[in-house]
């Protein structure tokens, strides 16, 4: 191992040791980034993590896993579904459930989780650099403060990219953040819609479809594929579909969306078959896109594919030997639990520490109602 931390010839006696500000810099504070930073810090290395101040905890805490699961629990409680086995099918905690009722608990949980993460990083002596990170070269990261007032450069022997993902937005759809939304925008609805079209029958689409159906929203799920949740056992998916139909969810498989028209009264979803579906709102769940646009990957000798994903080897090392990538930004399975293990493994591999490999088969949890 050379003194700069990349595979190659060992330094000679005449070589000057290279000095870096940090042994490891992590861009992104989601599950993968957190665990990479903490693993390296526990090995005794100097570590920093770069994150925008309002996004501590990454997508998982702020717009993804934690908000959606907290929202599900709020729906289960307020609709009375969690207690109906005891009190009967008509039991309901609150007759008219508002968006404020649903999201009050969500914001509380996000705040608590953010503080837990900050405390954990502080306890492990990880420096938190507030701002947006981008590459100047393979060993240099520029951090632009959130208000754009200052840009500071730091050097690191190793870098872990853990910037996560965002909802993919097809170019053919005009998102107005009011009636045509993605899964992030759904967390900012002004009221519970009476009707909702969900485009995409993957995990995120079906989770939100079930939650709003439990609230009494008339939900229509559209997908050009022949079935929902194709990664699941067909019997499990078919059983879930049966229960969702009990909640008045309609399914239109084998249908492709040609476009969405919106106005002050709601939306009309136009299908390629010529059918039209009116609804108060449309949620697009068309997969995820790696958040690599702001990284200036070219400066480090890296590139991403059309979905913003970075290619890595079995050690989560990119084509640039001192740079690793973990979590959603490398694609499937894009789960919080696997991202945590990927982050730890990347840190161990960077510093030549022994570590157990990830199991070839990983569990997947889908949080629907029921």
What does this protein structure show overall?
By secondary structure, the protein is α/β, with parallel strands linked by helices. It has 2 domains: 22-167 and 289-350, FAD/NAD(P)-binding domain; 180-286, FAD/NAD(P)-binding domain (3-Layer(bba) Sandwich), CATH 3.50.50.60. The protein contains 8 helices and 17 strands. It has helices at residues 31-42, 58-62, 65-78, 84-87, 99-123, 203-214, 234-246, 336-350; strands at 22-27, 47-51, 127-130, 132-137, 140-144, 151-161, 165-167, 180-182, 195-199, 218-223, 250-253, 257-263, 266-271, 276-279, 281-284, 288-290, 323-325. Strands 1, 2, 3, 4, 5, 6 and 17 form a 7-stranded mixed beta sheet that branches. Strands 8-15-9-10-11 form a 5-stranded parallel beta sheet, with helices on one face. It has a 3-stranded antiparallel beta sheet with strand order 12-13-14, with no helix packed on it. It is globular and about 75 Å long. The relative contact order is 0.16. The model is unreliable at 7-13 (pLDDT under 50). Residues 22-343 form the FAD/NAD(P)-binding domain. Keywords: FAD, Flavoprotein, Oxidoreductase.
Order of helices and strands: EHEHHHHEEEEEEEHEHEEEEEEEH
Overall average pLDDT: 91
The biggest sheet, with number of strands, parallel, antiparallel or mixed sense and barrel status, is: 7 strands, mixed
- Strand content bin: 15-25%
Q: Can you identify the CATH class of the largest domain?
A: Alpha Beta
Write out the CATH superfamily name of the largest domain: FAD/NAD(P)-binding domain
Bulk shape? globular
Q: Name the poorly predicted regions.
A: 7-13
- When the domains are counted, the total is 2
How many helices does DSSP assign? 8
Q: What is the second-level CATH architecture of the largest domain? A: 3-Layer(bba) Sandwich
DSSP E strands, number: 17
């Amino acid at each position: 191992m050379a003194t700069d931390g990349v595979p190659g010839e060992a330094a000679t006696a005449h070589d000057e040791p290279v000095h870096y500000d940090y042994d490891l810099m992590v861009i992104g504070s989601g599950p993968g980034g957190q665990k990479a930073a903490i693993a390296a810090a526990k090995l005794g290395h100097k570590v920093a993590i770069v994150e925008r101040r309002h996004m501590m905890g990454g997508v998982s805490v702020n717009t993804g896993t934690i908000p959606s699961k907290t929202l599900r629990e709020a729906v289960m409680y307020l609709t009375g579904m969690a207690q109906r086995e005891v009190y009967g099918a008509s039991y309901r905690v609150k007759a008219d459930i508002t968006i404020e009722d649903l999201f009050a608990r969500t914001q509380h949980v996000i705040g608590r989780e953010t503080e837990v993460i900050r405390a954990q990083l502080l306890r492990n002596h990880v420096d938190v650099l507030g701002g947006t990170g981008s590459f100047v070269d393979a060993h240099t990261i520029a951090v632009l403060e959130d208000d754009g007032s200052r840009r500071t450069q730091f050097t690191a022997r190793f870098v872990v990219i853990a910037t996560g993902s965002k909802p993919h937005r097809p170019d053919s759809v005009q998102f107005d953040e009011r009636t045509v939304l993605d899964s992030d925008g759904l967390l900012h609805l002004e009221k519970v819609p009476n009707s909702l079209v969900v485009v995409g029958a993957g995990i995120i689409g079906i989770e939100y479809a079930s939650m709003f159906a439990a609230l009494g929203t008339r939900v229509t799920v559209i997908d050009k594929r022949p079935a929902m949740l194709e990664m699941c056992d067909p019997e499990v998916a078919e059983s879930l579909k049966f229960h969702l139909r009990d909640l008045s969810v309609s399914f239109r498989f084998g249908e492709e969306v040609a476009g969405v028209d919106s106005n002050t009264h709601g939306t009309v979803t136009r299908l390629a078959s010529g059918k039209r579906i009116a609804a108060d709102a449309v949620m697009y769940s068309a997969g995820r896109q790696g958040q690599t646009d702001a990284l200036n990957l070219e400066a480090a000798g890296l590139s991403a594919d059309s979905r913003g994903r970075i290619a890595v080897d079995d050690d989560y090392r990119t084509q640039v030997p001192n740079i690793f990538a973990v979590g959603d930004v490398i694609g499937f399975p894009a789960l919080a639990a696997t991202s945590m293990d990927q982050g730890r493994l990347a840190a161990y591999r960077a510093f030549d520490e022994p570590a157990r490999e990830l199991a070839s088969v990983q569990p997947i949890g889908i949080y629907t109602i029921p």
